[in-house]
Amino acid sequence: MDHDFDMSLTIAMGEQFGQPAEGWPASTRFVHPYLGIIVRSIGLEQAGGFFEAARQAYRREQEIARAGGYQFGFPGYLSTELGDVEATLALTAAWEAIKAVHEIAAHRDSGTDFERYVDCAIAACARIMPATA
C-alpha cells in the first residue's frame, strides 16, 4: 500500500504542478514524505477524512486571517474539524505530520499553498480506493 500511495501522490502532484522538470515548488520534496506518513499511520480509509478535515481547518484559518480576527491557529482548527477522537499513537503521528506539511508550505516557498498539497493527497487516496474495493 505504501508504494501505491506514494506513486499515486506523485501522479497527483504532476497533475497539480506539471512535469517535475518544469519546476515543482521547492517544498514538494519535503512535503511528499509527510503525506505518506499520514497514510501509513492511520490507513488509507481514515486518511481521506483526515485530509479533508485538514483542508477545512486551513480554510478556516485563512478565513479568520482575511477577516483580521483572533487566530487560534491551524492545530486548533484541525482539532475542531476532527471532533472527539481518541488520541492514539497513529493519530498523533498523522497529526504531527500534517502540522509539518502546514509549516513547510507556509514557510518554505511561495510556489504553492497548503491546500494544494492536501488536494494532491486527497486525489491520491481517491485514485487508490477504487482499486482496493
Structure write-up:
The chain has 133 residues and is an all-alpha fold. 77% of the residues lie in helices and 0% in strands. It has 6 helices and no strands. The chain has helices spanning 2-17, 28-42, 44-67, 74-82, 89-107, 114-132. The protein starts with a helix and ends with a helix. The model has no long low-confidence stretch (mean pLDDT 88).
Describe the structure concisely:
The protein is an all-alpha fold and 133 residues long.
Class per helix and strand makeup:
mainly alpha
H and E order: HHHHHH
Q: Give the % helix.
A: over 70%
Radius of gyration: 14 Å
| Counted beta strands | 0
Largest sheet: none
End-to-end C-alpha gap: 13 Å
pLDDT averaged over residues: 88
Could you say which overall geometry the principal axes of the C-alpha atoms support? globular
Low confidence ranges: none
**Percentage of residues in strands:** under 5%
Number of helices: 6
